[in-house]
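Subject: DUF89 domain-containing protein

B.,
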Amino acid sequence: MESDSKMVAFPLLLTPIESNYRACTIPYRFPSDNPRKPTPTELSWINLFLNSIPSFKERAQSDTTVPHADIKAQKFAQRYADILEDLKKDPESHGGPPDCILLCRIREQILRELGFRDIFKKVKDEENAKAISLFENVVRLNDDIEDEGKRLENLVKGMFAGNIFDLGSAQLAEVFSKDGMSFLASCQNLVPRPWVIDDLDMFKVRWSKKTWKKAVIFVDNSGADIILGILPFARELLRRGTQVVLAANDLPSINDVTYPELIEIISKLKDEHGQLMGVDASNLLIANSGNDLPVIDLTMVSQELAYLASDADLVILEGMGRGIETNLYAQFKCDSLKIGMVKHPEVAQFLGGRLYDCVFKYNQVLSR
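Prediction pasted inline below.
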């Protein structure tokens, strides 16, 4: 975190006493497990992070903003691998026992200590430029769908398709480096419904009957995810009279969009009248979430976001990190939606679904 301001709990989150909030969705261990012996789940996830090291090392080596990047990238790979091996021997070492938040935090800390601020900056900029060029066409295709329910479903599929651009997944990083990714092809190739968690029909009913006054959306990746997935959906909310707050990371992490990057993206997409393809965007607000990881603990967000979110009646957590690996079971004082694609076999196994399956979890609060 660069800011010295105090972090606070997200105000719409039910208190731990009310909901027993735990940020990490998957239980890596239970109280009965031996504290000195790694559990099978811990070993599985440690290996997942070990397998991601080569792609991170490759990105770090090509970071031209860091002197001696090749040597420092090798140091990163070795240091992170050593810590992960330590955790296999003693899960209580290095601040453990490990969970997805700790494993992400250690990785980011090592990169930053070695001078790597944003090893995915180049690819993020390239993907943002591509997605911006496609934004108008994607919006027009959505607008051409007259049936409200079908248009909503198309927007939702767009969010899933955009969420594929995730370089934190070793498999997807490899696919991306070879072939790139087509947004429209991804829309067509989504796994068929019903998804592993599929509350879309219930959400459609609510959508047809209610206009939320304010929605807070925790956004995920750069490129197609934010520009072709989230922003068309946010624009539809704006058109329906909802004020929309987009909450983005404070600091770079993998290819997640950051607060400054999101401000720049929105400024490029708005016309001279402050509109997004004919829709007034004055009710579109950008907030710094205070977060610096691809996952999020909602007991620690920025005061700015807490203030902006206090009167919202819809919370959306988008992406595997924020909406599935953390916060899938988080309970809120208002309606909430967790939406993301399953991009790790370990997550698919936990949910009883398929790799690249989709999660659309909607919780409705009847009164507030």
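Residues 175-180 have pLDDT under 50 and may be disordered.

T.
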